[in-house]
Amino acid sequence: MSKRNVTYIKPEEPAFLKRIKEQVGYTEGPTVDTKRENLNPVEPEDLEDTIDEQPTVVVLQPGDLTAEEAAAVNKQRNEEDQTPADLTKPIVFKAKSKNKGDEEVDLLNKSKRPLAAKKNKSKKVKTSLLSFNQKEDDEEDENN
Q1: pTM of the model
Q2: For residues 128 and 68, what is the distance between their CA atoms, to the nearest angstrom?
Q3: Contacts 24+ apart (CB under 8 A), 99-103
Q4: 98 Rama class: left (phi>0) / alpha (psi -120 to 50) / beta
Q5: Backbone dihedral angles phi then psi of residue 57, each to the nearest 5 degrees
Q6: What are the pLDDT digits (tens) for 9-28?
Q7: Could you give the CA distance from residue 61 to residue 98 in angstroms, rounded to a whole number?
Q8: What's the Cα-to-Cα distance from 64 to each of 2, 60, 70, 97, rounded to whole Å?
């Protein structure tokens, strides 16, 4: 199937609408063609956060990062990002560190799993695939 170009030609606006828009001072909004226009280049000053745009630092407990410590960490990260990678060394991935609370939960879950598996093995539940056979099966069990 061949490609078809669909175009739209905007009809002439009626004279009474033109007069009303002139009186009100209406200006035409953006069109589809405005999306295709080139934007002004972004300056580095626009990319940086100003003092007003900086996040608010709240220290609730001792050990929380203060504004100065957070700035030092950000500065260190930026310096690490600026240094080129040493391609002669092998790539080493760090293991994800676990919290102490997660380790305790893991130990509890590991200890419960074998018990749950033993309980499931000891119980034999008779299941039937069709529900209308269930009454017949119950009657057979009563007769035996």
Answers
A1: 0.30
A2: 67
A3: none
A4: beta
A5: -100, 125
A6: 889 999 999 999 999 999 98
A7: 22
A8: 64, 7, 10, 19
